[in-house]
Design goal:
The structure holds three protein chains of three kinds. Chain A is 19% helix and 32% strand. Chain A is an alpha+beta fold. In chain B, a hairpin with a 4-residue loop joins strand 8 and strand 9. The longest helix of chain B is centred in the C-terminal third of the chain and has 29 residues, at 208-236. Classes of the chains: A alpha+beta, B alpha+beta, C alpha+beta. Chain A binds chain B through residues 3, 9-12, 14-17, 29, 31, 33, 38, 40-44, 46, 48, 55-60, 62, 88-90, 126-128, 153-154, 156-157, 160-161, 208-210, 213, and chain B through 39-40, 57-60, 69-70, 111, 113, 117-120, 148-157, 192-193, 230, 233-234, 237-238, 240-248.
Chain lengths: 230, 248, 257
Amino acid sequence: MERKDARPAREVVVPGDLLDDSGMKAGSGTYVSDGKIYASKLGVKNVFSGTVSIIPLRGRYIPAPGDMVLGMIVDIGSSNWLVDINSPYPAPLHVNEVPWKVEFGDTSRFLKIGDMVMVKILMVDESMKIQVTMNDSGLRKLEGGQIVEITHSKVSRIIGKSGSMIQMIKNMTDCRIFVGQNGRIWVDGDAENATVAAEAIKKIEKEAQTNNLTERVREFIESKIKPEEE
Amino acid sequence: MSGQSDLELVNKKGIRLDGRKAGELRNIKIEAGVLENADGSAYVEIGKNKVRAAVYGPRECHPRHLQNPTKAIIQCKYNMMAFSVGDRKRPGPDRRSVEISKIIAEALEAVVLTELYPRASIDVYIEILQANAGTRCAGLTAASVALADAGIPMRDIIPSIAVGKADGKVLLDLNKEEDNYGQADVPFALIPKTNEIVLLQMDGNMTREEFDTAVEMGVTACHEIYALQKDALRRRYASALKEDVSDE
Amino acid sequence: MSRAVISEIRKNHIIEMLKEGKRLDGRDLGDAREISIETGVIESADGSAIVKYGKTEVIVGVKMIPGTPFADTPGKGVLTTGAELIPMAHPLFESGPPSEDAIELARVVDRGIRESGMVDVDKLCIKEGEEVWMCFVDIYALDYDGNLFDATSLAAVAALKSAVIPAEQYGKGKNAPLPTTCIPVAVTIAKIGNTLILDPNFDEEQISSARLTITTDDNGNYRAMQKGGKGSMTLDELTQCLDMSRDKGKEIRKIVG
């Protein structure tokens, strides 16, 4: 749930800003020069157990192994599909990595261009060559519903602490929701409720404030649909 | 640099045609995040120059043969709109714009952490809406802000300005008349944190002393512009101060 | 315009909503997006305008220079329109010579202005058979979210209406406003399934089968049309488009003033 206590002031930093010269550890979005830590990205300064890092405000999704993402089929080969995962790098999905037995050259019978799939990042090598898989529980082709796109750096906010935020939206709107780490979110349910869920997600992305966000999102959803019996 | 004019560019009191002193910048306005589709963007006015810059990427590199397996490449396109200058400019690239695109891309390459994105391309588009001397510097100034706005990791933000000489005096940030009838033009850009030069061109005629003065002026002015660039980015995302971007 | 891959889910979602007469951005089928016009934005141009249709943003600049008239129209000024779909505006746009799309766009804008007689070319004669004003209309897309036809047409019209003939600069007498007669307004209607929608945004444009751009004048007369897309329109749909474009054109004309 929301932490209501005052937290250290967060500041927007830009590339080149000095973050620390007192011997902290350099985290993501930073670089070290002459023993000092500087910001390399536009974002918010974050200090956590002796490490200073940047929580980015902008920028493309960069895949990491284990991430669950929403991908779109953009090309089809005879033994694989090419999946756009909203990152600088296209991700091939090999026929061995899908839950179906696919004959050579028979790929387009299973997934077509424009289809959305839930996939997991299997591997990312040094030159950012990527492989994705659908062989894991819950991964599948998505049908129906709608896709909401948000900045990937806000994904953790949509999910909330231990999944509290997304669970609340699901419960209140009775929608099925899948949040991809790449900022693509699939929402499916009763048409009007799904629209409310989509709006709530956009609201979290835009208006996230320090305090009472969960409460405000709850009020927002309640104002749009009949509240569930509590 | 014709150097030939009856026009008095700097009067006896050392005041220029537009009322500035030798080491004074024109009015500068910088805004970050001015476009919807681009990953990052910026708008810059320096005097009567009006420039937009857009950044797309890092994204898949096309054409493929330009891909570098160890780092991202930076591709820049500088373009003047047909109505940006006195005489209508024919649309499309010319030798001048190709050269400017190249030196701007190289200047940006010096600060962008390209090794984080092997095989990718970071594409920078600079459009000159209105030109009045110093467009490549205004373009590079805008492009740096657009890169930061796109969330591209970089060591620093690059400011750029031209210095030059007119009526025998070293002047900062030449306007069109000074550029047309002056005796030297020195477009200039540096990495403020280290004062390393990343863009430098010169044409005209300067003594060693004049050039030293020019560089000194350029360095000071770049640091002023740097502050405006950072301010533009902070202003754009100031609301994020109240924002809880993570619950970690 | 060029095609992008739109996910099946988004496509179906848009289509399902249209069946209920709704659009993803909350508009009614016959609504245009919010339109803004800013003129006089470029001092180096003789006329200029930045126009926004929602998230679509375009800039148009007008340049006028004395030149030689065409042999068959010795007493008339010359109007030339060009359009550039620069890569700044959208990932689908590439650098290089104007694409088919850019050329079609420029010609559709040109046709609306030319055929409506908006610019009084008879008054652009400096010396018959020798010298007339050449009027260059240069169009650039800055941010592309669909329907460049209407946005650039409106920007061209606004830029021309604000244009001043730079006669003094060329020693051809006194500067004077560019003589214009009427305000042509282009309205584009796209067809998705069997639904007609006005002012399509990018996603709508991508999944539409056909579109029709209709330019009307102050009297509600039709002055230029362009059907695009690989699909077709029925005669009944054409009738609807003719009504919609005239009515919406009248509304938009009021914004130009």
